[in-house]
# Entry
Amino acid sequence: MTASIRRWALALLLAGCCNALAHAQPAPKNATGQEWWRHAIFYEVYPRSFADSNSDGIGDLNGIAAKLDYLHDLGVDAIWITPCFPSPQVDFGYDVSDYVNIDPMYGTLDDFDRLVSEARKRNIRVILDFVVNHTSDQHAWFLDSKSSKTAAYRDWYVWHDAKGPNRPPNNWLSTFGSPAWKYDPATKQYYYHYFYPEQPDLNWRNPAVEKAMFDATRFWYKRGVAGFRLDAVDTLYEDPQLRDDPVLPGKDKFGRPKLDEKYNKKLPELHLALQRLRTVADEYDAVLIGETWTNDVKELEEYYGNNGNELQLPMDLQLTKLTFSAKSFREHIKAVDSARGWPTYVISNHDIPRSYTRYGDGVHSDDIAKMMAAFYLTLRGTPIMYYGEELGMQNNDPKSKEDVKDPIGVLGWPKEKGRDGERTPMQWSAGPNAGFSSAKPWLPVPESAKTHNVETETGNERSVLSFYKKVIHLRKTEPALIEGSYIPLNESDPNVLSYLRKSDKETILVVLNFSATPQTPRFDLAKLGFPSPKTEALLENAAGAPDGVLKSIKLDAYGVYAARISDAAAPHN
Ligand code: NOJ
# Structure
């Protein structure tokens, strides 16, 4: 056992003894007896970019703690912090070199404990990011693994002989642009990495790996963590025979042949591992969120497990890839809403261009951002927001290759600019560096930070931020939005997406104009129990209120209208 592996084992042991009682979370069920995560607003924090408390240009845990009041006022119930563990930062934390500590760049374990306890005072839970598929090549396990073919940890990673001189074991490719195998001249074998070469894949077929990883989750649960977002679950297992992936027509963005990743992605074994991970999570009433890139709703359903025994919240990331139209969103939501399991909606994260930029047209972008908020925050399901989305933060892509920090942007420039653009500092004010840091931030802030920032928008009733606050407030207070069913309306309308949320206490109508031209959708709700519907507006943007009894609603470009409806003819309405 190396000294650092001994330290890791000791840390796990001590955490078990000292923290077991210290960090109990708020009750797991809410007032209506449901699991808390069904009605929580989750908020992704990218710690490098959220708030810098020590003026080094990089965000940190104390910075996050200082902003908890803001998050509480916004209505956030849980923050998911992307990896803040020790890491060489090749992939900005997704290359973990120690699963049971905090990277000094972000603070200390004490800072973390303080953050959890301050968050708890505001009824905010803390979710960590668990990088399950791979470690850093600087992790003690890999350093040992690489030291010799007979090393204790050799089988913790996926090693294999060459297929022939200078030939890797098979044709698998790394999603980050290189081959998926790296040759180690010292031990004369290749190791497998689905991501960067500095991120060797763990061998989940080795029970010792699974045990060590499960113990790492216990370490954090005992410190008060309420769950994990599981990174890259799709790639947990590889085909034991290492068969070549079938080659598809065409080239990928790095100019390599396209592969059908049938032998290194979504292998059935991964579901059994998720079930076992869930058993551990259940010991702590914890929630598991999945980074689940699925091709269809059937694949998404698999991640809940046949008996609801895998992930409670597999993210519906397909939503981020849809064509922006009422039709495609309507069809997709209908399918997800009727699937097994509780929907988990996401419109932005640290790997894809910001929703404001993806959906925006440069003319109505603020209205589109509001419409998207009204859309995904009034659906049945759990939303996961991305920091700054509530401000209308836009992507700020690097202007030249020299400016790129994300290695895939360097490798793939100019076609692939990397992910820096969606990771820029949170915009707190119109002041220097958007109020993120008094030092030069690690990534530049865009010009739009002058208008789209917390301070400026807080004082403006019509800002994107004020709109988000209104929708979030409604979502938390209206029974139909909390527990109501989802009923699509006007399903052949190409421009306007409309639906009801209906509980036994009330019914709410949501109407969203997905087009740049004014629309006047008509409604006939007689069959749904409202022959003469009366409206009580709850939320409006670029919409005209209907006169008297609801027949139609006028909406300007990307207008939003939501109202509680009741029937004028009913005696007690
Ligand atoms: C998904 C994470 O979201 C991404 O940022 C990271 O680069 C890869 N997984 C590898 O961990």
Notes: Residues 10-25 have pLDDT under 50 and may be disordered. The pocket of 1-deoxynojirimycin is lined by residues 91, 94, 131, 195, 231-232, 291, 350-351 (CB under 6 Å). The two ends are 73 Å apart (CA to CA).
